[in-house]
Design brief:
Length: 251
């Protein structure tokens, strides 16, 4: 009898599939995903997510559906049988969610459990602006409305006087603008003529200077040619005289 109980206890203990413990971190207000792997023989077994001590009342979500997202409150479970992994998602984490959880595989005897340590960190604090008292806000808004109304009345009266003055002075201003425009137009014409005249004067002056330089160069060349011709004539005459004298001496 004792040996039978021992064998039964050993069988139940071997049926409990427990992997190494894991640690998962999350932040307050955010979501966290936990992946739970299982052997090939558990493809179509029910999977669940529970909190320690993982009794019936501690099961947070449970399903036997495959390749389908099942959601219960803040928890969802998706079983991907092709890779033998089911994923648990916990949304809107709170500091109270910190604790020990289990990935559960339902089977005959003792269910297979995988222990998970979840730690939820406190969200960073964001500075908040404290609103002023309702009474002061109402008084400030009322005072602002009264000031705006007074300003509109003043602006209306000022606008009426201004329109009358504007209607009187408009012809004078128009005449002044036309006169100023005429003066500006005359100035533009003068500048335009001057801008065209100056280059023309510069070009004509350059042409005159160039013609003068060419004329002088030609005159110098003519004088040099004449001097060279006279020199050649004198040399030729001297040579002829010398030849004549030489011929007379021989005779």
């Amino acid at each position: 009898m004792k040996s039978s109980l021992y064998i039964l206890t050993l069988f139940i203990g071997l049926g409990c599939v427990t992997s190494a413990e894991r640690r998962v971190n999350g932040s307050e207000g955010e979501s966290v995903e936990i992946q739970c792997n299982y052997p090939d023989g558990y493809r179509y077994k029910e999977k669940y997510w529970c909190r320690h001590p993982c009794g019936n009342k501690d099961v947070l979500i449970k399903t036997g559906k495959t390749d389908t997202v099942v959601t219960v409150g803040r928890f969802s479970l998706y079983d991907n049988v092709s890779i033998r992994t089911f994923t648990v998602t916990m949304s809107r984490l709170t500091l109270q969610d910190t604790g020990v959880y289990y990935c559960g595989l339902e089977q005959w005897g003792t269910d297979g459990l995988s222990k998970i340590h979840l730690r939820v960190r406190k969200a960073p604090t964001v500075p908040t602006v404290t609103p002023s008292a309702p009474g002061s806000v109402t008084e400030e808004v009322t005072a602002t409305a009264l000031t705006a109304s007074s300003s509109q009345d003043t602006a209306s009266s000022t606008t009426g006087d201004g329109n009358e003055s504007l209607s009187r002075s408009l012809p004078d201003q128009t005449a002044t603008l036309m006169q100023d425009h005429k003066v500006d137009l005359d100035r533009c014409r003068s500048v335009f003529r001057l801008s065209i005249g100056l280059p023309c004067v510069f070009i004509l002056t350059s042409i005159v200077i160039a013609v003068e330089i060419i004329t002088r160069l030609n005159s110098c060349r003519g004088k040099r040619s004449a001097a060279q011709s006279d020199g050649q004539r004198e040399v030729t005459g001297d040579t002829a005289m010398k030849m004549a004298e030489a011929a007379g001496g021989r005779a």
